[in-house]
Design a protein that fits this description.
The protein has about 110 residues and is an alpha+beta fold. It is built from 4 helices and 5 strands.
Length: about 110
């Protein structure tokens, strides 16, 4: 079980996010976040997305993964360190500003 905030629910429910965007946030980043931060493991993210893809493992490209991460930034679900530019790197810390405390909604796995 993990908990999401009202703000996360609001942002995840808005248009403009793909199912892949939501999957990366809810299944990869949010469960490992501690104190509103998560460390990126691009290989694990790519593997997780590939095994859900009917085309088979290894079918998601780094460009597609980068697009997903930038989409999450654009919707306000994740933020980068101040001054971070360019592509997301392995081991980069991202912030989950919508994961702040508020009335909680429980999701069960």
């Amino acid at each position: 079980m993990f908990v999401i905030s009202d703000k996360e629910l609001e942002l995840l429910s808005e248009g403009g996010l793909s199912n892949e965007d939501r999957a990366v946030y809810l299944l990869s980043l949010r469960p490992v976040a501690r104190n509103g931060k998560a460390v990126l493991d691009r290989n694990a993210l790519a593997y997780q997305m590939a095994i859900r893809d009917h085309r088979g493992p290894g079918s998601i490209s780094d460009d597609e993964l980068q697009d997903i991460l930038f989409s999450l930034v654009g919707k306000g679900l994740i933020e980068r360190r101040k001054g971070a530019k360019g592509l997301f790197e392995d081991g980069e810390t991202v912030f989950l500003p919508a994961a702040e405390r508020s009335r909680k909604i429980c999701l069960y796995r």
